[in-house]
Each structure stands twice: as C-alpha cells, then as structure tokens.
TrEMBL record:
This is NADH-quinone oxidoreductase subunit A. The keyword Transmembrane helix applies. Pfam families: Oxidored_q4 (PF00507). It comes from Thermoproteota archaeon. It is found in: Membrane. The chain crosses the membrane at residues 6-24, 56-78, 84-103.
Length: 105
C-alpha cells in the first residue's frame, strides 16, 4: 500500500465518522439568549465591546519561533556530525534571549 492510498483511506474514515456523528447527534436549538455574548449580565451594545489582542501578540510570536526552531532541529538531526548540536545550542540561546530579554517591562 503506498502513501496516497493510505491518505485516501484515512480521509474516508474521518469523513465517514464525521457524517455519521452529524447524522445521529442531538440537534441544539439556538435562541436569542444562547447567541448573545456573555458580559457579566451587562447589556452592552455590540460596537462598544472591543477585544484587546495586543497582549497576546508576544505569545503568538513565541509560538511561531518555537515552531520554527523545532522544525530546524528536527531537520538537522538527519545530518551527521556536530551540526545538530550547533543548531540546538543556537536555538537554546535564542530562546533564552527571548525569555530574559523580552520580559523587561
């Protein structure tokens, strides 16, 4: 069995489970209270509700950097010699700079 047929079989299994679950699941009725946003019981107009995403930006950047570092280290382990160790040391140093240099507020 090659990789294409394995992917197609896995996709068919996932889609069949999804559609069977959707067919037999309990349907939920949505009313006005269910669809309204939760704001501690306050009736706020929709235009006054703002979400401040600035504080999550640093965590999104850390997540992106950790993903890139993980990919670089995983790919570097296919190489022989000292190259994976050098990549690991550079990645660790960059993470330490981010942790200790990024929290200076």
């Amino acid at each position: 069995m090659n990789i294409i047929s394995a992917i197609v079989i896995a996709l068919l299994i996932v889609l069949s489970i999804f559609f069977i679950g959707r067919k037999f699941s309990q349907k939920q009725k949505y009313d006005k209270e269910k669809l309204s946003p939760y704001a501690c019981g306050e009736d706020l107009p929709a235009e006054e509700v703002r979400i401040n995403l600035e504080k999550f930006l640093i965590f999104a950047l850390y997540f992106l950097i950790f993903d890139v570092i993980t990919y670089i280290i995983a790919v570097s382990f296919f190489e022989r010699g000292i190259l994976p160790a050098i990549y690991s040391i550079i990645a660790l140093a960059s993470v330490l700079v981010l942790i200790f240099g990024g929290w200076h507020k």
